[in-house]
Hints:
By secondary structure, the protein is an alpha+beta fold. It folds into 2 domains: 3-68, Orthogonal Bundle (Arc Repressor Mutant, subunit A), CATH 1.10.10.10; 75-200, Chorismate lyase (3-Layer(aba) Sandwich), CATH 3.40.1410. The protein has helices at 3-18, 31-38, 42-54, 100-106, 157-163, and strands at residues 58-59, 67-68, 75-77, 88-92, 96-97, 113-122, 128-136, 145-154, 170-179, 185-194, 198-200. The strands form 3 sheets. Strands 4, 5, 6, 7, 8, 9 and 10 form a 7-stranded antiparallel sheet that branches. β9 and β10 (185-194) form a beta hairpin. The N and C termini lie far apart (54 Å).
Amino acid sequence: xxxxxxxxxxxxxxxxxxxxxxxxxxxxxxxxxxxxxxxxxxxxxxxxxxxxxxxxxxxxxxxxxxxxxxxxxxxxxxxxxxxxxxxxxxxxxxxxxxxxxxxxxxxxxxxxxxxxxxxxxxxxxxxxxxxxxxxxxxxxxxxxxxxxxxxxxxxxxxxxxxxxxxxxxxxxxxxxxxxxxxxxxxxxxxxxxxxxxxxxxxxx
Length: 204
């Protein structure tokens, strides 16, 4: 089976959706039906459907009917320290030794054991809107202020899976470091925001 074949099929399905053959929220034919239409093995069609789900074109669980996905809501980030107003899920709480970068951000020695959590922030429809990974040393403390830097990062495997995007896809990366009243860092976080779901508005 050629890898290019299922990608060509996925491209053609995108074209048919854009042409209005299937509307937002409308189920697509089963994999078996479309495999017969495209004259390919059902496994090839499964790969095409998986690719379209990962890239946000289709939505639905594997082995069930999939439908044309609703476009992800576009949100504007103006305050990277504001609490998330919708539901969220904590997906990882394993401690981590400080990398060189984290050690510099928190002003600790490299390989210092840091507490950690990764939280998946969900939009009102239950779709993943943002990933927030936070690190701190010892007991979590209150902060008085924060600093933030905006950049771009390519997604790793776990991030891409959580956000329904492709590995190595580009996303906004906001590095937020919370500071105590003396300006010393108490925790630092990476906010990963998919570019198709967010705009960034800087305060003036």
